[in-house]
C-alpha cells in the first residue's frame, strides 16, 4: 500500500522492482536485482523453467505504449537467443500493445496489476501464471493474456 500511494513515480518503480524480486525469491526463480550494462538499465532478471527472463517494471499511473515494448524487446533480443522478457506495468497497457502480434515482440510476455493482485491474493501462483502466459504467447503469438481468462478456464 505504501508503494501504491506514493506520488513519486521513481519511488513506485523501485518499490515495484523490490516487491517483484522478493516474489521471485519466494518462488525460487533465482532473481537478480536491477543492474546496468553498457548503455542499458535492466530492472531485474530471473530464471523460470530453464528460460532466462529480463524484467521491465513500470508503475507510472498511465498505460504503457507500444514504443516502450519495442524498446524493451530490443534489450531482450540483443541477448542470448532463448532470453525472454517480462514487462510488468501496474497500470496496464494501451490497446495497441494488447493486440499486437509483431514478431519483434515475440520474446516478451506482459503482466499487469491485475496479475500481481491475483498472485498476492492467492488466486493463482506466480509460476502457474508465468507458465500459462508463456504458453499462450507461444501458441497464439499474443503476448498478453488477461488473468481473468486464466482463472475462469
Describe the structure.
The strands form 2 sheets. A 4-stranded mixed β-sheet has the order 3-4-5-6, with helices on both faces. A two-stranded antiparallel ribbon has the order 1-2. By secondary structure, it is α/β, with parallel strands linked by helices. The protein starts with a helix and ends with a helix. 44% of the residues lie in helices and 20% in strands.
Low-confidence stretches: none
Strand ordering within the main sheet:
3-4-5-6
Tell me the β content.
15-25%
Rg over alpha carbons: 14 Å
Give the number of domains: 1
What structural category arises from helix and sheet content? alpha/beta
Please name the CATH topology: Trna Endonuclease, Chain: A, domain 1
What is the helix content? 40-55%
Amino acid at each position: 500500500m505504501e508503494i501504491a500511494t506514493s506520488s513519486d513515480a521513481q519511488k513506485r518503480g523501485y518499490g515495484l522492482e523490490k516487491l517483484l524480486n522478493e516474489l521471485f525469491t519466494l518462488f525460487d526463480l533465482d532473481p537478480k536485482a536491477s543492474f546496468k550494462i553498457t548503455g542499458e538499465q535492466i530492472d531485474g532478471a530471473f530464471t523460470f523453467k530453464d528460460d532466462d527472463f529480463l524484467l521491465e517494471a513500470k508503475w507510472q499511473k498511465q498505460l504503457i505504449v507500444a514504443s516502450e515494448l519495442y524498446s524493451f524487446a530490443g534489450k531482450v533480443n540483443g541477448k542470448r537467443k532463448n532470453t525472454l522478457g517480462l514487462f510488468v506495468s501496474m497500470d496496464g497497457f494501451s490497446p495497441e500493445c494488447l493486440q499486437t502480434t509483431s514478431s519483434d515482440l515475440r520474446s516478451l510476455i506482459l503482466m499487469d496489476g491485475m496479475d500481481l493482485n491475483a498472485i498476492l491474493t492467492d488466486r493463482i501462483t506466480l509460476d502457474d501464471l508465468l507458465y500459462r502466459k508463456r504458453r499462450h504467447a507461444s501458441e497464439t503469438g499474443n503476448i498478453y493474456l488477461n488473468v481473468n481468462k486464466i482463472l475462469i478456464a
